[in-house]
Amino acid sequence: MKFNVVNITDLLSSVGEDEVCTALADFECSKNPEIENFLRYNAIDFAKRKISVFMASVFRRQIKQSIFSC
Known about the structure:
Strand order of the largest sheet: 1-2
Order of helices and strands: EHHHHE
Radius of gyration: 11 Å
Shape: globular
Helix content: 40-55%
Number of helices: 4
Structural class: alpha+beta
């Protein structure tokens, strides 16, 4: 499996906020629930306000088929 590392702001620009939000809603991280909570509920807002930006490992090029890993 090949993964691409993508900056969330680039992802927002290329596919839009709704698509990224939908993909992040499925993110799970049993090892660290704080990370799960941040990505689901705060990551997009923080990125738009340039407070914090994360890099996502994306499988394939289509966000709908993305796998965000913890």
